[in-house]
Specification:
Distance between the termini: 40 Å
Radius of gyration: 20 Å
CATH architecture of the largest domain: Alpha-Beta Complex
CATH topology of the largest domain: inorganic pyrophosphatase (n-terminal core)
Largest sheet: 6 strands, parallel
Strand order of the largest sheet: 3-2-1-4-5-6
Bound molecules: guanosine-5'-monophosphate, manganese (II) ion
Number of helices: 12
Oligomer: single chain
Strand content: 15-25%
Shape: globular
Order of helices and strands: HEHEEEHEEHHHHHEEHHEEHEEH
Structural class: alpha/beta
Helix content: 25-40%
CATH superfamily of the largest domain: inorganic pyrophosphatase (n-terminal core)
CATH class of the largest domain: Alpha Beta
Number of strands: 12
């Protein structure tokens, strides 16, 4: 931590990045970190490859997050909430050329990329680690930073329900409320409203659920065609897997999502993202790692090129071990 603090204090131009297809922790950490670095007068650029999901657009400074960095140069890159550097997306080759890469994360599968690391797998969210870093930087947490940290912790703990929910989650969120966060307002923004398309997508997603012969594994499948039909975006898929996870006796749920370039036919080879969730008794980070991905013990994922029937077979085969 001390090395990172002194390095940041000596940096002149900092690029802050979080993972593509960001969730609340990726956005919350990114903005909190950016606002703190601006508070200590650092030239800071916030980058994310994907558009900011609609439910997080209420956060302060979201409009300063860029999707292109042009030909700016940076002396330091801060990578947030990424178990592996390639999670940031296309910018990875540009970021690799930045002299110092700082890796701040809480994934168990983080192998420690970069020059300086602040990895705490017991942290409930990257926002928890960013909170500690901001304290060490002696930046006073204003209402904007507080809202960003609160949102990161709220969403990554599934509203204080997931197994990563720890004491710090409550302690930090209580402090953020003291600093001006309105929990009801944030909950309304993040969970309060669904577009009609998202409800229709939920219907298709629920209808796609298949269960293994022993009832311990469920698969939900979302095609690009379903997103097109319901006029939804990849961000609208966030959280749907929890329905497949909640089914009685299910230990592991998988959500197969066709990538944007998918052609929608099941016989041809396509690119898929598979999300895995467990009831806490199975380490899905290990399963995801065996397919080249990673994550947390009860929430993980991987990318794979396969035909849909082959992929389902591979996943259903996992049920034998459950
Ligand atoms: P999700 O299923 O929501 O995409 O991801 C669940 C968790 O697994 C997240 O913490 C995410 O960072 C991680 N994860 C998902 N896909 C990948 C992947 O392809 N590689 C790695 N290293 N982690 C992933
Ligand atoms: Mn996270």
């Amino acid at each position: 931590m001390d090395k990172i603090i002194s390095h940041l204090q000596n940096s002149k131009s900092i690029l802050v990045v979080s993972h593509a297809n960001p969730d609340g922790d990726a956005i919350g950490s990114l903005i909190a970190m950016g606002l703190a670095l601006k508070a200590i007068s650092k030239k800071t650029t916030l980058y994310n490859e994907s558009p900011i999901p609609a439910v997080y657009r209420f956060l302060p400074a979201v409009n300063s997050v860029v999707r292109e960095v042009g030909n700016q140069t940076f002396d330091t890159a801060v990578i947030l909430d990424c178990g592996a550097l390639d999670r940031i997306g296309e910018a990875v080759s540009m970021v690799r050329r930045i002299p110092v890469i700082i890796n701040i994360d809480h994934h168990v599968t983080n192998a420690g990329f970069g020059d300086l690391q602040l990895i705490d797998t017991s942290a409930c969210a990257t926002a928890e680690i960013v909170y500690r870093l901001i304290k060490q930087l002696s930046v006073s947490i204003d209402e904007n930073i507080a809202a960003s940290i609160y949102t990161g912790i709220l969403t990554d703990t599934g509203s204080f329900r997931f197994s990563n929910t720890n004491k710090a989650a409550f302690a930090i969120c209580e402090e953020m409320v003291t600093l001006g966060v309105d929990p009801y307002k944030i909950a309304q923004r993040v969970y309060g409203t669904y577009s009609l398309g998202r409800i229709k997508l939920l219907n298709l997603a629920l209808d796609s659920i298949e269960i293994s012969y022993n009832g311990r594994l469920s698969i939900m499948t979302l095609s690009q065609d379903m997103l097109n039909k319901t006029r939804t975006q990849p961000e609208d898929v966030d959280g749907l897997i929890n329905y497949a996870r909640r089914i009685e006796d299910v230990k592991v749920a998988a959500l197969i999502q066709e990538h944007q370039n998918g052609d929608g036919t099941s016989e041809t080879c396509g690119n898929y993202h598979v999300s895995l969730r467990s009831d806490g008794t199975i380490d899905v980070a290990e399963i995801a790692s065996s397919f080249g991905g990673g994550g947390h013990s009860s929430a993980a994922g991987f990318n794979i090129e396969s035909t849909l029937p082959d992929l389902k077979l591979k996943i259903f085969n996992l049920a034998e071990r459950l």
